[in-house]
Every structure is written in C-alpha cells, then in structure tokens.
Write a structure and sequence with these properties.
By secondary structure, the protein is α/β, with parallel strands linked by helices. The protein has helices at 49-60, 81-88, 98-108, 182-193, 220-226, 236-247, 256-263; strands at 6-12, 17-23, 29-33, 36-40, 45-47, 64-69, 78-79, 92-95, 123-125, 130-133, 136-142, 151-155, 158-162, 200-203, 217-219. It has a single domain, classed as Metallo-beta-lactamase, Chain A (4-Layer Sandwich), CATH 3.60.15.
Length: 293
C-alpha cells in the first residue's frame, strides 16, 4: 500500500494560489509547499497573513516542520520560504535547475552580483532524488515547460504538480514565459499522468472558472479522462498548438517582474537602502504580451 499523507490546502484568493501542508500522521512531521508572502502591488505593502495561517495550522495540529519546499520560482507571488524558515528552523528546497532561471533573469535585471548557484536554498533537488516527510517516502520529478526549473514532489500517494496541470475544467499551465516550452510541458504532463491512476494530484492555482468554489485536488485518472486540454489532444503537436494558441491570448501576470526579482533570490526581499527602506527594481520593455485595450 502506498502511504497516504494528510494534505491541507490554503487558498490565497488574491493570487489564486494554493499552499500546502503535507504531513505524516504517524510521526506528525510535515512539509510546507509553495507558501505565499502577501504583497499588495498598489501600496507596496508586504504581510505574512498567509504564512501565519499555515503556522497556526501547524501549531494546532501539533506538527513539526521538516521541509519548506517550492516547486519553482513563482511569477505571481512572493515566496514566504525565508520567513517560515526563520520561524521554524526547517530547511528550504527547490529543484536544481533553479540555477538556469537565475542565470536567465539576472541578465534581465542587470544584476551581476546575484549568486546564480542556488545557494539561496538549503537544498537543491536533482531529478529522481528521494527524501522523506516523516516516514513517508518522497521523490522529485523534473517537470519543466511552465518554467525551466519546475519540479513535482511525489509524497506517498500525493503529487504536488503546481503549474503543470490545473483542475480538469481549467486545463494546463501556460508555457510562454522566458524559458518556457509547450513541448516540454507536454512531456512533463505525460510523466505525471504515468503515475498510478489513483495518485492524488494537487495543483498550485485555481482560477475558479464560471465562478465556482476553489478546488485543487484531482487524480491521475480524472485528469486523463476529462482535462479540457489533454482530452482534446491526440499528440504532442496537437497539445503544442492548443497551448500556444491559448498563451497568445493571455496577458503577462501582473506581478511577474516584481515576483521573479524576489523569488530567484530564494524569496528574499531586497536589502534595505540607506534610508532603511527596501526597493524593487524591474526592467522596462523586456517582456512581450502587453495588453493595451
């Protein structure tokens, strides 16, 4: 029998993101996956409301945080990993291909001093590497396409797929960011859907099509049967066509230039300047996809 961890999702309605606490009921040890640091782009304010709700849950359930995991460098929210490490002492981790994203984006930001070696995290996971959450075995799948560095965490019977598959009625993630690839995304999804049919899949976003309540859990079998993109495509070429047509209609995420500056640095906010204030810097006329109307 494949071990079955307990999974608690936390939905952030501002960014449509889902954060997770996945725990081993036998040992009460847990991992936090893709935590959000609150950011209001209009005022420039930051807060820890999402992360504190996670910490409240951990405390109420008597859990011990063993890992703080990110699936990829996010383009729509800041990672709360540094804050949670400060509060819990748990190590942070991401996939080792983060260094490729760092090298790409440090040039965009004209940031020669950024260490592009992944040293901002305590652990860089390699493809196929194993670890554990309590007594529950876990494995890392390399899942590029949405970004160069995206990975899937398979923890017991639960796979945390973030920006690869959404809920079946929402399809799949976009693949038009710098370093993205619809072909790579297709192959990543095929690898995920090769897991046992009963594997639980936990996505990282839900945009609530039709105004329904947010959802984030499906199974491999459900995705294969009814995912709105997968079920329409009989080949990789079909998928690439559908995905790229869809991507051409999408504006860039409103926080991409804010968030990547923070997230390629392990979720660390910029250091305070001489007046004690922190400042974000982002480039003009770097990305395509502006929507003027």
């Amino acid at each position: 029998m494949t071990p079955k961890p307990l999974v608690k999702g936390f939905f952030d309605k501002r960014t449509f993101s889902i954060q997770y606490v996945v725990s081993d009921p036998a040992t009460r040890r847990c991992a936090i996956i893709d935590p959000v640091l609150d950011f209001d782009e209009k005022s420039g304010a930051t807060a820890t409301r999402n992360a504190d709700a996670i910490l409240d849950h951990v405390r109420e359930q008597g859990l011990e945080v063993e890992w703080i995991l990110d699936t990829h460098p996010h383009a729509d929210h800041f990672s709360a990993a540094p804050y949670l490490k400060q509060r819990t002492g748990a190590p942070t981790a991401i996939g080792e291909r983060i260094v490729e994203v760092q090298k790409l984006w440090k040039d965009f930001y004209n940031w020669p001093g950024l260490p592009a070696d992944g040293s901002q995290w305590d652990k860089l996971f390699a493809e196929g590497e194993t670890f554990s959450v309590g007594t529950i075995p876990a494995k890392v799948l390399f899942s590029p396409g949405h970004t160069l560095a995206s990975i899937t965490y398979v923890i017991g019977d639960a796979a945390f797929v973030h920006d690869t598959l959404f809920m079946p009625d929402s399809g799949t993630a976009r693949a038009d960011f710098p370093g993205g690839s619809a072909s790579r995304l297709y192959r990543s999804i095929e690898q995920i859907l090769a897991l046992p049919d009963e594997t639980r899949l936990f996505t990282g976003h839900d945009y609530q099509p039709g105004g329904r309540e947010p959802l984030w859990e499906s199974t491999v079998a459900e995705q294969k049967a009814s995912n709105t993109h997968i079920s329409k495509c009989r080949s990789e070429a079909d998928f690439v066509r559908v995905r790229e047509e869809r991507d051409r209609t999408l504006p860039m995420p409103k926080l991409i230039l804010h968030a990547l500056q923070v997230n390629i640095n392990g979720g660390r906010l910029p250091e305070p300047e001489t007046n004690g204030k922190r400042y974000l810097k982002f480039p003009l006329d770097i990305l395509e996809g502006a929507v003027w109307d």
